[in-house]
Each structure stands twice: as C-alpha cells, then as structure tokens.
Amino acid sequence: MKRINSEDMRRLLKLYFIMGSVNCKLSPADTLSAAADGGITLFQFREKGPSALTGAALLQLGGQLREICRNYGIPFIVNDDLELAAALDADGIHVGQDDLPARLIRQRLGEHKIIGVSAHNLTEARQAIADGADYLGVGPVYPTTSKADAQAVRGTAVIEELRHNGLTIPLVGIGGITLENAPPVIQAGADGISVISAIAGAEDIRGTTRRFAQLVTAPSP
Ligand code: 3NM
C-alpha cells in the first residue's frame, strides 16, 4: 500500500477530533459516536494525564474507539505511542518533537500509515517534512487547558509564516479552537482545525460538531 497523498490528507484534516477518557463528560464511546455523527473527518486517541488509562484498559478502550471509527469510515490515529498504534493496527500516529522522527516510525509501521508531527516554528516544520511527515499540527494557536506542557500561544502567525515560506504540506491548527475563533485559522492557511475540549466538552456534541464541519467547509470571509 502507498503513502497517503496530500489532497486526501488535506480532506481528512478538515475537522480533526482528538480525545482520551480524561477529556470526556459522556463515555468516550458515546462522545466519539456523537462527534462522528456530527461530521468529524479524522480522530486521534490521546490518552494523557494523571488519570489516563494504562495496560489492558488502554488497549480495550483503544480497540473500542477504533471500531467506532471503522464503522464511520474515519481514520483512527494514535497519539505518541508506537507500540499502541501497532497493537491497535491504527491508521496512523501523531508524534511530538521529542518522539522518534517520522522516518523511523514509517520503517516500523509501514509506508501507508499516516504520520503527523507537531511543529511550532519554521525550523521544526522543515525538519518534519524532511523526515517524511504526512501532515503537521501547528499550535497552540489560542490558549488551551487541554495540554499541560503546551508551548507559548502563537496565534495564527506561525501558520501564515509556514505558508509564506512556501510550505505546502497539509497542516492543521490546534489549541483553544472554538466555533467563534476557528475561521481565522483556516484563513491563515491551515487545511483544517484540531479540537479537543470544544467538542468533547460540548453540551450538544453532535450539533456542535456539525457547526464546526460547516465552518471548515465554508469559512466566513
Ligand atoms: N497540542 P483544546 S495544543 C493536544 O500546541 C494539543 O501542539 C497542542 O486542546 C499543541 O482544543 C493541544 O481543548 C490541546 O484546546 C488542544
């Protein structure tokens, strides 16, 4: 199987939902099902934090969420954990700057798996592209409470900088994105948005996801 092409990747990044059990008010399965009903295009299982599941419970939840994704035709990405991604036969993995380079991950997981890398500036973005990343996650665009070790807030400036420097790689903005502040992220040149709390913590997950999906398909001018 071949590596994903850029246009397919861009389409998948439109509305990229990320969560783990610590982010959910409902059960993770109900949260993901509602978001999938609402129109997310990609999902990342990110089980992080002091009360994160481990061992058999982690595998069990991962397997359950992967099955929901498969039923909806939504690719299932695992955050950081190469062994978990392999064990769950995930469609891809998302890694940070401190993790293995994309090149080595691809050797381990296979050519066709999606590999995303977090990048916070032009240097990191260029390196991730050289290493063979399929997409970049760029942030935090706005203040976030969902990532304990988030870097300084960057607004949309880094996204604009990457595009102005000719980087055409599929990329998604992340960090504090809400229905209100999402449009400038797309206008800055992102192919889509990545969201944890504005979807996982919403009163009406399906309805909120639908509104996000409308925004990223037709952003306001
Ligand atoms: N990565 P929310 S910010 C997982 O800047 C993650 O790389 C970030 O959660 C980065 O949508 C972030 O609730 C948290 O703000 C995003």
TrEMBL record:
Binding-site residues for 4-amino-2-methyl-5-(diphosphooxymethyl)pyrimidine, renumbered to this chain: Q44, F45, R46, E47, K48, N79, S118, K147
The record's free-text note on cofactor binding: Binds 1 Mg(2+) ion per subunit.
Annotated Thiamine phosphate synthase/TenI domain residues: 15-199
Keywords on record: Magnesium, Metal-binding, Thiamine biosynthesis, Transferase
Organism (species): Paenibacillus tritici
The protein's name: Thiamine-phosphate synthase
A GO term, aspect molecular function: thiamine-phosphate diphosphorylase activity
The protein's Enzyme Commission number: 2.5.1.3
